[in-house]
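> tool_call: predict_assembly(chains=two)
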Amino acid sequence: MAKEYAVDFPELEPLGDDMFLNAERRCPVILLLDTSASMADNIDAVNDGLQLLRNDLMQDSLASQRVEIALMTFGPVRLIQDFVTVDRWLPPRLYASGGTPMGAALETALQQIQIRKRAYREAGISYYRPWIWLVTDGAPTDKWHPAAERVQTEVLRGGIEMFTIGTDNADTSILSAISRPRPPVRLREAKYREMFVWLSQSLKPVSRAEFGASLDLPEPVGWGDIQA
Amino acid sequence: MSSGLDWTFAWAVEAGKGKTEAQDACLATTLPNGAVAVAAADGAGSTVHGGVGARIACEVFGRSAGELLELATDDEIRSRSRAFLADTLAEISAVAAEADRPISDFATTFVGVVADESRVVTVQIGDGAAVAGLSDGLALIAKPMATEFVNVTRFLTDKDAEDRLVVEVFLQAANRICAFTDGLQPLIVDERTQEPHAPFFERVFSVLVGASEEPFDERASAWLSKMLSGDPVQKRTDDDTSIVVARRLP
């Protein structure tokens, strides 16, 4: 039986947008992609994968406004796209050429993250722990040890989430030294498209949920094998 | 209206998009001598049993919060708050042992407020916040715990939880209290200025008109549920959302 109320109850509608603030939050992700000459056979798959990443993230209105992508390639090291929210990101076509200066690429990525975090702070925007997503098909052609140490310092202080993905020709021990304790993932049969879709699916909840101290990501089913 | 009630309250918990069950929990209860306790907790999304931890924390606080107001000094209140933390952990440990799981599986944030006619005490760990309506306006009485990154917070089950526990005592009479978890927090508290968003709180407090014969106002709770599941909230967050609101009746 419905209860009787002695007073008029305030109705829900209209519940104005002005009741709420718009939370500005950003989840910065650097894609650090090996575009050395040896990538020539797979560069089309990488280009397709980037489009899939964008299109998939665009399906999620919160993720498209919160995930910020910066696209860097090596070699040589180039910042193709500085951080931009997905709804304003158009991935340009990438070409394969040159060596594999992975150390310089990592150094530049760390610098870009520092610059971006400063901009967030100055603008009063809250941000998630930045991700670096490194994909390579070979071994570094420059001095990578100092960069790996700097990455490890950031990882250990909880400053970044470092991911490394390598093809069959990649040096797993080097990738492991960069990303530990997270193991590198070996990419199966040039499944770049599947990898980027997985990245998108993993970023969607990260841009909104509370994860505490550690990320709990799904297994890279269908495109990669964790190299323990 | 003369219902004889000192306080009326309502709460609502809504699961985030794509989730079948929320890991948040809320509670409000009246206490002797015209006091009230409210609590909100956010079970860690990365755990299986965070929601159980959240519920236990709220229940333990509901049972023990009244004791905080019986204490004379702030030191005693802080000491009793640490005992609340220990009691909560003991209950969580028992449930965890039963389930053969580590207590980190029950990780939860917590914000609790207890108020009588002259004091307001807040007990907090991690995200979530609380706002009080005082005679001269709104005040953020429990601030979200500051961390560099949005997706990092502190939990009641952390090893250093006792050091992280924030206890504040305000010598004020609050006539309206609202506690809420992280999902709603950036929508209703300005992250830059730490100001409560008045249009939200005024509207939400206005729903508690004292229409119920019980302290728990079912109809106001239904309103809060509809508010949380409504488009203005859902387009701004995909996280679990929860809110508990209490109002002192004249």
